[in-house]
Amino acid sequence: MNYWMCATCGTQFQLSEEAPSHCPICEDQRQYIGHQGQQWTSIETLQSQGYKNTIREHEQNLLGIGTEPRFAIGQRALLIRSDAGNVLWDCISLLDDETEAAVRALGGLRAIAISHPHYYSSMVAWAEKFNAQIYLHEADRQWVMRPDERITFWSGETLTLQQDITLIRLGGHFAGGTVLHWKPGAEGQGALLSGDIIYVVADRQWVSFMYSFPNLIPLPASEVARIRDTIAAYDFARIYAAWFETIVPRDGKEAVIRSANRYIAALAGKL
User: Domain locations in the chain?
Assistant: First the structure.
């Protein structure tokens, strides 16, 4: 018996004797089947192959946790340290003894919140290890490949996890696509943890919005305008997207608004 893991998206499946026949997340048009065909692995296999996690501080009380060498989509998780209990934003597939010890030394985890299904990874394994609750938007319930009683499906447009931490449903990339607003971030100016619901591009003064990133399927102008208008109600100076280097260091809110306007103008042929 094994908790099999898709080698392309990094999602862990429920316990089974044989590997699943397919990965619905990778078969969806927002993702893809690996070039070598559907392949499976496990946390234990990754450990035996020499994969390790690295932890880096982004700013006070915010740390990134990512796997080296790169595995699957390659995102890193973000750990917010809080007196009310630490929160893990997004998740990664690998969990080992060294990572567990490091996270416990930082205060453990009370909650895990995830932007969208591509980053569900081995969320249940993390939740079990740290006795944490997982928060997912109910609109993406169908994409959970390892159901568990630790998962809370929240509904509506916002969920207050703690006094200064709010989950916001923006949709777009997925129906339940979520970002996290962290009010104390960026030295009290506010930070937005966006996964790739709001995607930080190579020029880090700008962001973008897509239905599928690997397959380059755009969102309609109406969706981008709705995302822009929804997030405009929040103040944030910094944006942390899904990888260590994808950060808008300043003027984050302005970057989202001008990027959305540019995107809409491009679709209208007005660039």
Answer: 5-267
Whether domain 5-267 has CATH 3.40.50.2300: the reply is: no
209 is written with which tokens?
A: 């919005």
Strands 133-137 and 151-154, bridge-based pairing: parallel
Identify whether the C-beta of residue 101 lies closer than 8 Å to the C-beta of residue 70. Answer: no
pLDDT in tens, 86-127: 999 999 999 999 999 999 999 999 999 999 999 999 999 999
- Tally of CB atoms within 10 A around 199: 20
Phi, psi of 114 (to 5 degrees): -130, 140
Q: Are 5 and 13 in contact (CB under 8 A)?
A: yes
Q: Report pTM.
A: 0.97
Question: What residue type is 266 in one-letter code?
Answer: A
Measuring CA to CA, which residue among 169, 174, 269, 245 is closest to residue 212? 174
Tens of pLDDT along 145-188? Answer: 999 999 999 999 999 999 999 999 999 999 999 999 999 999 99
Distance of alpha carbon 22 from alpha carbon 90, whole angstroms: 23
Tokens of 72: 């699957």
185 vs 180, 193, 223, 233, 250, CA distance in Å?
11, 10, 27, 17, 11
- The CA-atom distances, in angstroms, between 125 and each of 43, 114, 176, 221 are 9, 14, 22, 38
